[in-house]
Amino acid sequence: MFRRLLDVPTTIRVTVNGRDVLAASGDSVAATLLLAGHSVFRRTLRSRQLRGPFCGMGVCFECLVTIDGQSGQQACMVPVKDGMAILTAENADG
């Protein structure tokens, strides 16, 4: 669904839900997740509905993920770093 328009000169390795993913240096965590095929980032607290990025600029808080053990991080606002561990609620039980 999502694809990169230009070639990426520098790639780094991150883990998403325990699996290795190649990412472009300078991309946001949200862009990395979307390019890797992850559209579900979190679930709502009460109804457990699935959520993904909406605004892409840090306003809506729909893209919250756990990054390096810190929950509640806005994926659209955090640049990826080599070795980063990212957890989404994609596989979480309802």
Written description of the protein model:
- It is a single chain.
- The chain contains one helix and seven strands; from the N terminus they run ββαβββββ.
- Strand 1 and strand 2 form a beta hairpin.
- It has 94 residues and is mainly β.
- The N and C termini lie far apart (25 Å).
The helix/strand class is: mainly beta
Low-confidence stretches: none
Biggest sheet details: 5 strands, mixed
Beta-strand residue fraction: 25-35%
Helix fraction bin: under 10%
Shape: globular
Distance between the termini: 25 Å
Rg from alpha-carbon coordinates: 13 Å
How many helices? The count is 1
Mean pLDDT: 90
Pick out its properties.
mainly beta, 1 helix, two-stranded antiparallel sheet, globular, five-stranded mixed sheet, 94 residues, 7 strands
What's this, in brief?
The chain is mainly beta and 94 residues long. The protein is 7% helix and 30% strand.
Show the helix and strand layout.
Layout: E1 11-16, E2 19-24, H1 29-35, E3 42-43, E4 50-51, E5 64-67, E6 70-74, E7 85-87
